[in-house]
Amino acid sequence: MTGSTTEAARPVSPASALPRIAALVGSAPARALAEAENLLQTAPGLGPAELLACQALRQLGRTQEALSRLDALARRDTRVPAVLWELAQTALAANASTAAISALERLTALQPGISHGWFLLASELRKAGRAEDAWRADISGVHASAGDPELVDAALAMNEGRLDEGIALLEARAARGGEDAPSLRLLGELHWRKGDMSKALDYCGRALGRAPGFDLARDFRIRLLLQTNRLDEARREAEILVESPLENPAHRLLLASVLVRLGEHERARDLYRALLDLKPDQPQLWQNLGHVLKTLGEQAEAIAAYREAVARQPSMGEAWWSLANLKTARLGAEDIAAMEAALATLPEDSDEHAEDRFHLHFALGKALEDAKDYAASFRHYDQGNRLRRARVPHDPEGFSAEVAATAQTFTAPFLATLGDGGCPAPDPIFVVGLPRSGSTLVEQILSSHSQVEGTLELPDMMIIASRLQARVDEGEFADFKTMIASLTPRDRVRLGEEYLEGTRVHRKSDAPLFIDKMPNNWQHVGLIRTILPNAKIVDARRHPMSCCFSGWKQHFARGQTFTYDLAEIARYYRDYVGLMAAYDAAAPGAVHRVIYEDMVHSTEAEIRRLLAYLDLPFEEACLQFHTNARAVRTASSEQVRQPIFTTGLDAWTHYAPWLGPLAEALGPIEAIYPQPPAR
Length: 679
Prior knowledge:
Keywords: TPR repeat, Transferase. By secondary structure, the chain is mainly alpha-helical. The protein has 36 helices and five strands. The protein is elongated, with a radius of gyration of 34 Å.
């Protein structure tokens, strides 16, 4: 008995006892508490022992007791991070939010480089209704994570193209309990670079779920949503982003970009002007403002904005081209000299300045065309097209093969086998054809009708077609025809409804019909009729030499990669008229054709014929289309705000000496125009 008492009273060494107690806290908290209390008897006030006792108390559910002791310990040991962390954890377990926030604020002030402290603080601040403070805490957490070695390694792997390795590093980190908002956002970018947009969006969404104040993750998610044409979601995210407590003009710029995509140009204009009021020496902002003003028909203001841009950056090729591309504006001798001087300052072998160079060549081509110096004009158009063609992918052979496969799919017998199906809504009017074919004129005429709303060149049908084609490319079906044949009536209804739902965001009025003026939809006429059998399709067609040359000398902001070579644009025109002829044969009368030259010479008769096809009554406003103040985004935006004129019909003839390759590539198509080719 005496021996036992002596053994129990033997002093306990802190150096040996503390590690043993720490190991017991998680698995045997009662024993850990007993041993910590025993150690405190022999070493009163020993901070590490008191901390272990409190951790054990929390594990045992005795949170109020632990909280009281931790509060006293934290007041005494004010600069011990472990004490503050345990105080925060215990306060959270005891639902003592104010105490938890206080502890976390002290902890992050003491250790600002530890990201998980910031993220936990942000979460608690948000629960307490302190939204702005929570947002700032999330941002601090993101900044703190920048030095995390595992995230640095994963980012380095991503930047070096080792995408799978980067993903593996972050997934291993998550398996060890290290998943947080920065690692989720990085996983999103890794999957985006691999081409998996669905996973990229999912990981970005999860990152924002963890840290709603993670501005960079929200910015990235908005850009992903824009890429997938989910414009309503992009707007909602952008509206949140501009409320960030960290003032960043880039956030308002991104919102303006979303608004432009949605057709809300007035609000975008106001955002650009507000930003320029704060910092007027921004050529890119002036250019963006010019684009919006041009779309709104505020031509004089657009010209002034573009000139502000080039005054601040004389080599800004896109701003010069935008000025030249105002079809009713003219660039004079001083402008030509300024552009030539700017071009001379740009090194020819610099990839950084390649876009400025080809934009300047296109602008000089237009200015010299207006000056009637057609030889010099052609040289610049030619140089601009060559520079642009070198930077865009276009496979004429592959495209022609796709068109041929489409023609072989939607034959009369095949259409008969499909039977009924598709969404019966009559809402869409598709205006198709080549760019510069008069499609904007047709759209402006129709959108002047009380029952028709003009929208934009909508990508939705192309997205659906691309997704279906991907099923063939991935080997799910032997060919495109087999894939289309596999669509059940319900599938076709669902696809039609998907199109209508996706385009709904662009409909701002209560007009029953709306126009989708994506010209490239001529490739998908068969698909349109399959999933939207009551939709109307208008084919806007122009003389092949006039249309192709006009497209070749037009620089397009995006897409239309076939337009930068005379032979390639001729081949594209042939593919187009061939497929449309095939569809005319398969479904006579399904497509209404507007010949541009006929519309110019016999406007009222052609408008009446067009409206009859659409089952719409004639309205005088369609003849007065040029008074329609709606926003127009295409290259013809100024032309359709004027009465029809005939001066542009034969503009290509000034360049006839240099258009031999175009005429040769068109072959007999030119001679028989406007008759369709024989199949």
